[in-house]
UniProtKB/TrEMBL annotation:
Keywords: Ion transport, NAD, Potassium, Potassium transport, Repeat, Transport. InterPro entries: K_uptake_TrkA (IPR006036), NAD(P)-bd_dom_sf (IPR036291), RCK_C (IPR006037), RCK_C_sf (IPR036721), RCK_N (IPR003148), Trk_Ktr_HKT_K-transport (IPR050721). The lineage of its organism: Bacteria, Pseudomonadati, Pseudomonadota, Gammaproteobacteria, Pasteurellales. This is Trk system potassium uptake protein TrkA. Residues 1-118, 232-348 form the RCK N-terminal domain. Transmembrane segments: none annotated. Residues 143-227, 368-453 form the RCK C-terminal domain.
Length: 458
């Protein structure tokens, strides 16, 4: 696939790194030549220096025969104009744009149409991150929750702790503990080393476990791995930007929410917009303010400013002062692996949320949804089965007979509204929604080829 990525910031760079190893022809466009040269030295991709919305720059980047254009510059307006030019001058088939401004998003149904601003798919990092945070609030104790198949199947990452009934026992004991609930453990990380789960594998305290189950059973399965935490009811948010505001709006009717904003004018605006949230003007790293607002009674402290260092420091302080859980928004990928688990309970990454959404539009073989896991090293994906036994490599075959890459596991299938946890003798049928866990995302091209119908299928 020939792909043009506009913008070599965190998202554009991470997306290019993800796709360049998957047999794609990538061209990266940005104004900063030094950054592009550095990326070209590391990866097998083309670079073009110039303005992302310039017709001549897009022509030089190969927009005439590009299959996909992804506009992820820091400017919504540049992204929109680039998509318009790609459509009008070069007839680019698929155009994706990152849009952050809430005003544009409110009017998206009227604005982003072929005869107005021709953007095929909109990616909003703020909305994606808000959704991720709300999922984590809904499932206390989870490190990551990704929904698939119309939210009927979920992939969940959580840690095993002493007190969980399955800790110290083999995975096979899960069926005895939960005889009426089916689930598949697809991955275990123990001291940062991957273990391929077998029925005889013993779950140990501290293991990071990834499992797939029907969404309605998430809490029941989690209760086997750790003492199920009480629902989060008292939440404190640091940072009143777009994400902080959006999270507060989602939570304020079901939780007691306090929000701390550094800028007085912005705090006043937030107080008007939020009807059931207590808004404070102050610094979230102020020991006295946190103590005064009873941080020790908070179920979760969520640090959502635009400053990574400030987020980390305020979260560590909140944890030290008694907050039961702390969640931190981190922009820089280099920080993520350093801090999660070391005083910070959960890290949320706008880049990974955006990459997950983008990959769902880039993958071949009718792969409709992708979740980036373990900070980009693993993936879960959902594919719809098309064709028949003569035109498909999968339909009509048992899972045990499929030539899956060695890091891939089929975890579950949605068939006619019913969730089926995958076993070796399950036969895949047409129109099945298949959820696959891929421990090594370098093998994703093999999955794409396997899931694509042959040329016999029309």
């Amino acid at each position: 696939m020939k792909i043009i990525i506009l913008g070599a910031g965190q998202v554009g760079t991470t997306l290019a790194e993800n796709l360049v190893s998957e047999d794609n022809d990538i061209t990266l466009v940005d104004n900063e030549q030094e950054r592009l040269i550095s990326l070209q030295d590391k990866h097998d991709l083309r670079v073009v220096t110039g303005a992302a919305s310039s017709p001549s720059v897009l022509r030089e980047a190969g927009a005439m025969d590009a299959d996909l254009l992804v506009a992820v510059t820091n400017s919504d307006e540049t992204n929109m104009v680039a998509c318009q030019i790609a459509y009008t001058l070069f007839h680019t088939p698929t155009k994706i744009a990152r849009i952050r401004n809430i005003e544009y998003l409110r009017e998206k149904e009227r604005l982003f149409q072929p005869d107005v601003i021709p953007i095929d798919h909109i990616i909003s990092p703020e909305n994606l991150v808000t959704g991720d945070i709300v999922h984590l609030i809904d499932y206390p104790g989870a490190l990551q929750v990704a929904h698939f198949a119309n939210k009927q199947i979920s992939v969940v990452v959580c840690k095993a702790y002493y007190g969980g009934p399955l800790v110290g026992y083999a995975i096979s004991a899960l069926r005895e503990h939960l005889p009426h609930i089916d689930c598949r453990i697809v991955s275990i990380f123990r001291q940062d080393k991957a273990i391929r789960p077998q029925a005889s594998t013993i779950i140990e305290a501290g293991d990071e476990v990834t499992f797939i189950c029907a969404t309605e059973h998430i809490k029941a399965v989690m209760s086997e791995l750790q003492r199920l935490e009480r629902p989060y009811k008292r939440v404190m948010i640091a940072g009143g930007g777009n994400i902080g505001l959006s999270v507060a709006q989602k939570l304020e009717n079901s939780c007691t929410v306090k929000l701390i904003e550094r800028k007085a004018e912005r705090a006043a605006q937030l107080a008007e917009k939020l009807s059931n949230t207590l808004v404070f003007h102050g610094d979230a790293s102020d020991h006295g303010l946190l103590f005064e607002e009873q941080i020790e009674n908070m179920d979760v402290f969520i640090s959502l400013t635009s400053d990574d260092e400030a987020n980390i420091m305020s979260a560590l302080l909140a944890k030290r002062l008694g907050a039961k859980k702390v969640m931190v928004l981190i922009q820089r990928m280099a920080y993520i692996n350093l801090i999660q688990g070391g005083g910070v309970d959960i890290v949320v990454s706008p880049q990974q949320a955006t990459i997950s959404a983008l990959l769902g539009h880039v993958r071949k073989g009718d792969i409709i949804h992708v979740a980036s896991l373990r900070h980009g090293t693993a993936e879960a994906l959902e594919a719809i089965m098309h064709g028949d036994e003569t035109s498909s490599n999968i339909i009509g075959r048992k899972i045990s007979d499929l030539k899956l890459p060695n890091s891939a596991l089929i975890g579950a299938v949605l068939r006619g509204g019913e969730v089926i946890i995958a076993r070796k003798d399950l036969i895949i049928q047409e129109k099945d929604h298949v959820v696959v866990y891929l421990a090594d995302k370098k093998q994703v091209s093999e999955i794409e080829k396997l899931f694509q119908p042959t040329t016999l299928f029309i």
